[in-house]
What we know:
The protein has 609 residues and is of the alpha+beta class. It has a domain at 113-180. It is 61% helix and 9% strand. It has 19 helices and nine strands. Strands 1, 2, 7, 8 and 9 form a five-stranded antiparallel β-sheet that branches. Strands 4-5-3-6 form a four-stranded antiparallel β-sheet. Helix 11 (314-329) packs parallel to helix 18 and helix 14 (394-425) packs antiparallel against helix 17. The two termini are 26 Å apart.
Amino acid sequence: MIRYDIVLYAGEQERFINELRELGLVDITTSGWEPSENDRSVLLSIEAHNKAVEHLKDFSKSSEYDVNAQLFANGEEAYEAYVAAREERTRLQQEMARLQKLADDIAPWGCYSEEDITKLAERGVTLRYFTTQPSTFDKMLDEWSETMTISEIARTQSTVYFVVVATDSSAVVVDGQEVRLPSKDSEALKAEIDELAQANKALDATFSRAAASVELIEDSAATIKEQLQGLKVDATAQREADGELIVLEGWAEADTAEKVDKMLEEYPNLVYMRRDATIDDEAPVKLKNNKFAKLFELIGAMYALPKYGTLDLTPIFGPFYMLFFAICLCDAGYGLVLLALGLTLLWKGGDKLRQAAWLSVVCASATVAFGFYANSFFGLAISDYAPVIKFLDFQNQFFSISLAIGVFQILVGMAINIYMQAKLFGFTSTFGLLGWFIILLSGSLAIGLPMFGLAIPGFDASSPVFYALVGIGAVLMLLLNNIKRNPLINIGAGLWDTYNNITGLLSDVLSYIRLFAIGLSGGVLAQVFNSLALGLSGLDAGIEGSPWYVVAIQIVAASAILLIGHGINIFMSSISSFVHPMRLTFVEFYKNAGFEMGQRSFDPVRKMK
């Protein structure tokens, strides 16, 4: 990155930002920006426009969309029409829901006329409406009928609806809940609901026009985003000379710096200074990876970008993450299911989900390969059908393999840390970490390799070369961990680091057991569901001599258990396979690699349209 410090007249700010926006190569620092009330309204407007675009794109795929709808004149007109129509639809739907509930409540009373009820009241006859429990009504009906005229209107299992005919002077005393009927009966309310439904349907024309004008709304949203860019720059710009001058901090990629230099040199009444960014600068970060590693930027971004001037670990942790995912899922059949889902997402997911779709395809493909090697296909042993192939005995062999994988990744992380410290602070600054690396690597080769039936000739735990390497590592770790300090202080610091490193490294290595545990648990659950399907359906006893319809029922029952059981297992195992490799990456690997997080990504001021 190239850093630019730019000084210009305050009155030129808007024009200058527009020039940068046309160029689209300079990131202006706006750190510490706190949105004002006006800024918040702009943010809300951007969010509202984005939601409108998303809703209208979904609407354009529905059957209510009119492909022949006319465009609006501009994006703001389309957006305002959409907002008004959305508010009206919300109001209509709420009113229809209210009326529908009211119609359902009074439906047992049947049809009635408010006009007739009023005429009866004018003659001194009043109809009063009650509800009560069936047991109460049946018990008290004869007693009530002695003094009142009562008519049962409707009855359900829990409620009796009845009318008491009373005069103005008569008292009505019944054990029930009196209700007041609305002026319209349920049929009239349903007619009103139908009218509202027609009005709601008519709004589809406005939504169709807005959906047809969605690109105009996107352009309008882009204009508001550009406005926000200007507000952020204005709020964070450093002002000098009583506000007459402003100072901006900008960043550009080294590959495009010549174009930026040319633009700044040609711009009138402007002074700028440029220099290469250093690790001490809070420079924005832009990752540059090949197509394979770029897929895993999605994973790395969930934690943080690397600090500018340090190493991007994405190409290094990517293959590890893919392997860890495959180990945790550990079933070729499950891998095929995820592969099918990934390909479907790649086909129908659109550009926004393309990176996630390819990541799914890559991890699922690794799962198919590892699951086959681990001898598992939907919980079935592949070796039963291919006995000549030598498979991995996951349950009995992979515990130690998972620890070896952990040691290897930690060593890779330590090597990266040594490289970066040597690059940034000189080779002598790495002596303490280098000593630990030599001891751990020597122990892994001399003691760990023979556990797997491998060995380096002449190099084991009793060989002079091993002791020599351990001695060199101890000297670096205890005496030379800081060559500028007193050796006695180095010894004390080295012993303290020894305690911390031993406990830390042991904890880190043991964390990789989760690869074995998660893969094993998923495989055992798959076998359990297979056994349940055969046992509960009776297929484990065989089908010989059973009627065809009994066999058909058994197959259907077994299939249902398999679909539900394996579906649950795939879902849970996939979540574990996604999360736990991420934890091993961000906690164990990043820590040992000395990862430092960056402040922000490179986001140049640019045209949004």
